Amino acid sequence: MNEVPAKNILIVEDDDIMLKVVERILKREGYGVEIARDGKEALQKVQDNKYALIITDLMMPYANGFEIISKVNGNAEKRTPVIILSSLGNEDSIMEGFKMGADDFLRKPVMVGELVIRVKRLIDQNK
């Protein structure tokens, strides 16, 4: 398994505009960023690498965010923090994500300051 720098974040998002916005914000804050444009690509990256944090959409092609959360935290020695980033606002989806191991939820469109604070908090907690 390849080691990834402690501040490396995986963004899983099928909306190119949202992906670029989040990527730009995180890079500006000094984080290393890898991207996956669908669930299948994300599952491969998670299998091959370790991340300080994963930010994932819920509704995507091939594998959804719930599957990613389950895979990431299902059998890991050390949990990887996960933030759900979704336009889905229904409480059932959010609660399901938390039950599966998500650590936080951000609604799209994301507010820059809120994203930065939540990312820093989760990464600092898991050092």
Automatic annotation (TrEMBL):
GO MF annotation list: DNA binding
Pfam family, one: Response_reg
Record has Phosphoprotein as a keyword: yes
Entry keywords, A to Z: DNA-binding, Phosphoprotein
Gene3D superfamilies: 3.40.50.2300
Superkingdom, taxonomy of origin: Bacteria
Record's protein name: DNA-binding response regulator
